[in-house]
Amino acid sequence: MKILMVCLGNICRSPLAEGILRNKISNMKITIDSAGTAGYHIGSKPDIRAIDIAKKNNIDISNLRARKFELSDFTNFDKIYVMDKNNFNDIIDLAENKEEASKVFLITDVLDSDSFVPDPYYGDINDFEKVFNLLEKICQKIANKIASR
Ligand code: 4NP
Predict the structure, then answer these.
(1) Ligand 1 probe mutation, 10, 12, 42, most atoms within 8 A of CB
(2) Which pLDDT score is estimated for 26?
(3) How many CB atoms lie within 10 A of CB 69?
């Protein structure tokens, strides 16, 4: 099973999702990666506020580096979880067939809620904390789903 987390910049939400889920399933044979729909921050570490909130929760994401989503990700991953509707539309637009499109999920759907993970980039540490707590809940559900396969 290979899972890709996707947001806009790959420096706030998707690296957090990657780190949180990896932390929960470290004993299983699952590949997790993350990417951005935009290339603004290619090669950058996660935003310092994302690194800090993860660290506060005993998760180290400081070694991650941003990359842009590429078409080969559709073949290399089984599930592509996006953080919001813009990410969803951007990735679906790149899908070349139904099979590729069928791999793309809005990550909040695992909570059966009609919601999204808000972009904290222009917010403050409280916004990062809210994003962390939401992704924590979501990734627990994903981990449970994987464990019960
Ligand atoms: P992310 O947050 O998509 O959660 O990584 C953002 C990071 C950077 C920008 C926007 C959102 N930006 O415009 O540079």
Answers:
(1) 12
(2) 81
(3) 24
